[in-house]
Every structure is written in C-alpha cells, then in structure tokens.
Amino acid sequence: MFWWGLIIFFLAVASNFLYWLKIPQGVIPWINLALPVVALLLLVVGLKRLWPSARVPGKTLAIFVTVLGALFLALSVWGFVHARDVPGSAGAPKVGQKAPDFTLSDTTGHSVSLSELLSAPMENSSPPKAVLLVFYRGYW
C-alpha cells in the first residue's frame, strides 16, 4: 500500500505538468487535486500497516514521505482554490468586440497600427476582413 501511495504521489507531482498535453483544460485541476488525495490516503494506510513491523530508519522515511504528501496536498488545495484569484482587466475588449486602434512595433522594429492592417491590401488585392490579435500575459 505504501509503495502505491509513493508512486501515485510522484504521479501527482508530475500531473502539474499536464498543461502541455492535449487534455481538456477543465479536467487538469481536478486531476491535480484528486491524485494527492489518493496518494495521501494510500500513504497513511501503508504507514499504519508498516508501523508495527518496520525498523526505525524505515519508519522515519515513511513518516517523512507521508508528511511530504500532506504538505503537497495542502499546496494543491491552496492552488486549486486560489487559481482564479487573478483579476480580469476592466479595460480589455470582450470576445467579438471591436478592438480600439493602436500602434505597436513588429518583430523588425517597424511601427504597425491596427487601422493599417485592416486597410492594407493583401496578396489577392482586397483588404482583410479581420485581424487576429493574440495577447500573452506577462511582461518582457
């Protein structure tokens, strides 16, 4: 039991990197919460079974791993509860809403404005109907 708990504990730690896989994003937080719970339950049951027969170094290691599992579970619960605490921007346009005109530098350093992109003819000599804007959170 204890070894299964240890294996699932390592899977719980690895589950925090599932965001790079093609898994629906709504499922991942629940996986990140469920695996530490299962791991801690198995670690505690395994520790109870191991307790009467284990030598002192084995008991110490088992207690350490179980406490580490409990701390990881607490961190997972805290992250699950506070993951949505990042406030939304009040001034950001909503999905489908027309963006205000702006001017930014492109990758070569030239200034490009939204109105330029919407009015400049494309290869087929007609102006584009829309421009795709991608926003990355962060600061560079």
Would you summarize the structure shown here?
The chain is mainly alpha-helical and 140 residues long. The chain has four helices and two strands; from the N terminus they run αααββα. A hairpin with a 5-residue loop joins strand 1 and strand 2.
Helix-strand layout with pairing:
Layout: H1 2-14, H2 28-50, H3 56-82, E1 103-105, E2 111-113, H4 114-119
Antiparallel strand pairs: 1-2
Structure report:
The longest helix is centred in the middle third of the chain and has 27 residues. A hairpin with a 5-residue loop joins strand 1 and strand 2. The chain has 140 residues and is mainly α. It contains four helices and two strands, in the order αααββα. The mean pLDDT is 81. The relative contact order is 0.10. Strands 1-2 form a two-stranded antiparallel ribbon. 49% of the residues lie in helices and 4% in strands. Helix 1 runs antiparallel to helix 2 and helix 1 packs parallel to helix 3. It starts with a helix and ends in a 21-residue tail after the last helix.
